From TrEMBL, chains A, B:
Names of required cofactors: Mg(2+)
Protein name: Phospholysine phosphohistidine inorganic pyrophosphate phosphatase
Enzyme Commission number(s) of this protein: 3.6.1.1
Taxonomy, superkingdom: Eukaryota
Designated gene of the protein: LHPP
Pfam families: Hydrolase_6 (PF13344), Hydrolase_like (PF13242)
Task performed by this protein: Phosphatase that hydrolyzes imidodiphosphate, 3-phosphohistidine and 6-phospholysine. Has broad substrate specificity and can also hydrolyze inorganic diphosphate, but with lower efficiency.
Any one Gene Ontology cellular component term annotated for this protein: cytosol
MF term (GO), any: inorganic diphosphate phosphatase activity
Length: 272, 272
């Protein structure tokens, strides 16, 4: 039996990454495709009585649209179960009285409808995909370089993700680009920031040692969760690459074929 | 008298950065505009008998077109006096039997006409400006991530440069983006690489202590030259910003209003 599973008996809450664990994004209609066994795995988690949150860095759609898409793919998920960076960023902007220049996906923009964007004094970067043109990145740069203290928020810091037709550059790459251009450090909202994981735990009323994160990103999912004292499994789906199992800094508590296998092993332990 | 000028009497060769020292790029016709006094300053250097090379990281045009543009602006400059990254990169590719995927400006591409670009096993990044689309950067990323040992050449590593309508992101920003995406380090061809400065000195048959670099980039011009034992002045034109005079790591040997002032002071010293 996998050694990580031994500790599973004290488990009360699960955190699941979404893209690469539940489904692969992309495809002609933008719907993506569910990963084999994941729809049923989510259902089994819910039936088990474990608490569950979907902890995503997805910023190509509002949370409402994102949930709609997952439901279309067959997943039992509701909006209040999804912890996502954009709503967290909106709270931070309002708390600190900041007015963003947005470089985000068109489909995410409505999430910021209630935020004052006039005369911007910071930049918010999401996974903007084709909106990452030279012109748009240059506009974001010009806002930052014109500020006495440039403030850059990045909704996640992923390197790349997997779509049905291959690996695609993620927001972290453009965060690094602007950090270098302006000689600054971005504030990351989303995984792997501690605040993000802790807000998901608080929402479930679960302690770190009672929770387990399952993701396909060795640094942002696994490393991020472990920094909060949360155990973490790496799935071999999504953007997983074999070299992730030899990552120089992060070792997962366990490696599983996919979400379905993780849930099989977990539920077997819990039912003993 | 400026203290840096005291050493000028042993001077035999000058290295001049071009964009931001001779002219500001951009504008409606893409010709840019000469910086006041620079055309005459170049002429006076040549009349003085000092050796001279133009040491540029410009990669938005072939060397031939670049020289043509400078001549149109009134500068006395010939192709053999210009040290530029693209010809240096072509030599390296041929020596090492590498076949590049090019992410460069359309106008630079002819410089690589003689290079085999089939089935690429490396990426060459130039200042591609509007060619830095999400799609193109993603293609470069997919080439790199598919290689067992990804090799990325960057033609310079500048953060930004000044065009007539404002600051623009330079190639270094996209180099950092791909470095982060693939967890690699790029090989820089051009300033501030030592090999680049030393090839310019060899071309003039001048020793480092007999040479002086004049540029508007505190890190790539001034820092790069100093690492080779070449003295270096920072001009307060081009992309110069007042905070450059308080750079935490690099101190120029002198700071001057513009090229014209530097040449005034230098020639006065040489004629004593």
């Amino acid at each position: 039996m996998a050694t990580w599973a031994v500790g599973a008996r004290g488990l009360r809450g699960l955190l699941l990454d979404v893209s690469g664990v539940l489904y692969d994004s992309g495809g002609e209609e933008g719907l993506g495709s569910a990963i084999a066994g994941s729809v049923q795995a989510v259902r089994r988690i819910k039936q088990s009585g474990l608490k569950l949150r979907f902890c995503t860095n997805e910023t190509q759609a509002t949370r409402a649209k994102f949930v709609q898409k997952l439901q279309q793919l067959g997943f039992d998920v509701s909006e209040k179960e999804v912890i996502a960076p954009a709503p967290a960023a909106c709270r931070i902007l309002q708390e600190r009285g900041l007015r963003p220049y947005l470089l985000v996906h068109d489909a995410l923009a409505p999430e910021f409808d209630s935020v004052d964007k006039s005369n911007p004094n910071c930049v918010v970067l999401g996974d903007a995909a084709n909106n990452f043109s030279y012109e748009n990145l240059n506009k974001a740069f010009q806002v930052l370089i014109g500020l006495e203290t440039p403030i850059l928020f990045s909704l996640g810091k992923g390197r790349y993700y997997k779509e049905t037709d291959g690996l695609k550059l993620d927001v972290g790459v453009y965060m690094k680009a602007l950090e270098y251009a302006c000689d600054i450090e971005a504030e990351v909202v989303g995984k792997p920031s501690k605040a993000f994981f802790l807000s998901a735990l608080a929402d479930m009323d679960v302690e770190p040692h009672e929770a387990l994160m399952i993701g396909d990103d060795i640094v942002n999912d696994v490393g991020g969760a472990q920094q909060c004292g949360i155990g973490a499994l790496l799935v071999r789906t999504g953007k997983f690459r074999p070299c992730d199992e030899q990552h120089p800094e992060v070792k997962a508590d366990g490696y599983v074929t996919n979400l379905a296998e993780a849930v099989d092993i977990l539920l077997e332990q819990l039912q003993r």
